[in-house]
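Q: Convert this sequence to structure tokens.
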Amino acid sequence: MTCEAGLLLSDLLEFAVPRGFFPPVTPGTKFVTIDGMVASDAHGKNHHQSGSFSRHVEHLELMTADGEIKFCSRTENAGLFAATCGGMGLTGIILTVTFRLRPIETARSQ
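A:
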């Protein structure tokens, strides 16, 4: 899933769940933004199995203080990626986030 960083988790759930997908990690509230989940490296009740949210982030676009937009992942700008995940917004403004969703079975008839 690639989305604007300011997307609310509640809106993501509204979109993804009917399509059979769910975030691998969710915090105790659905009224958090995706960039907030990255910046705080959110964890949920399943953290002992799934880790924190940033573990499932593939890459992100970050606007640094000088206005430059950088593509960050575990292999490209890896230090900046690591500092942004859990960095509470100190590395810049997260613009987009690409992360993995997990498939779920739904009770809805198909």
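The longest strand covers residues 57-63.
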